[in-house]
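Service request form, structural biology core

Requester: graduate student, group of Dr. S.
Request type: structure prediction, single chain
Budget code: on file
Notes: please return the result as structure tokens.

Sequence provided:
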Amino acid sequence: MASDYFTIDSILGQEKAKKMLRRAVANNRLGHAYLFRGPVGVGKKTLARAFGNYLNCQNPTDSQDACTICQSCRKLKSGNQPDLLVIEPEGVSIKIKQIRELKHALTFPPYEAKYRIVLIADIHTMRREAANSLLKILEEPPPGNQLVLTGDEASEILPTITSRCQIIPFTGLPHELVEEKLIAGGLAPAAAASLTAITYGSLGQARMMADRELLETRRAILETLSELKQANSTSVEAVFQLAEQAAALNDRLPELLDLIKLWFRDLIIIASNQPEGIVNQDLLDITGKTAKSWPINALLARLELFDLAKKQLARNCNKTLVCEDLFFGLL
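Core staff response, request fulfilled:
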């Protein structure tokens, strides 16, 4: 079964992270455990795999990268490398059962590679009991094991974990690079610019939003809200339809609300006479027509409605009713 295979040079951006890792190898000062921490969707897991490929490459290049053609590289490409362990959340979290299985696996030496690469992804999802079980391994892994953890900078990670790892910081990608990749993938330039700004340079998040067609759903809802506001109408039927359309997104609904909230932020920016800060470049037609419909104090008050809606969704309130309350409140 084929597997994802990456070289360090193939990773977009993150030059500082690459330099830190390569310097550690060159100076023979490899940390026993690394924590790749930064925004979602900027290449943390991909670089972790590429770093592991480089460490086990039998003929690394002069540029400090995997050769792609040695026996180890070929096995990784084909998905037949037994010395790569990947632990990811089961459901919403990494559970203690997974860590116990890892600890058992680490009692044995690597099968054939110089290092067994252990990638523990999304460490911020790990339950406390699982994290506590992991601490001893992080502090002193068995010989021949290289641990790489990845975590979201916006989520809490236990200090007992971070203190036992060398932190490799990741940042959002250059916006022009993300836009270029999105346009190359078939997205319209205005939509690419919006997604890049909305995700703060996260190519992974931008692609996810584009694939899920959240932008189109957002536009349809905002067009209707804008028309109702300009007509000074609170059409019950229209709002009910909007709520049903939004609620149908299920687990994607919080993302949609975040996108709509960003549009109201744009309206506040226009009301503050700072149009250069507008994020939603693909909604300028709607924004221009609606900009004066709400006074700035009313816009600020409406931002609080989104926070209330997100809290209600977190408490598993009825999605349709939450959206109805929100959309009536926005008018």
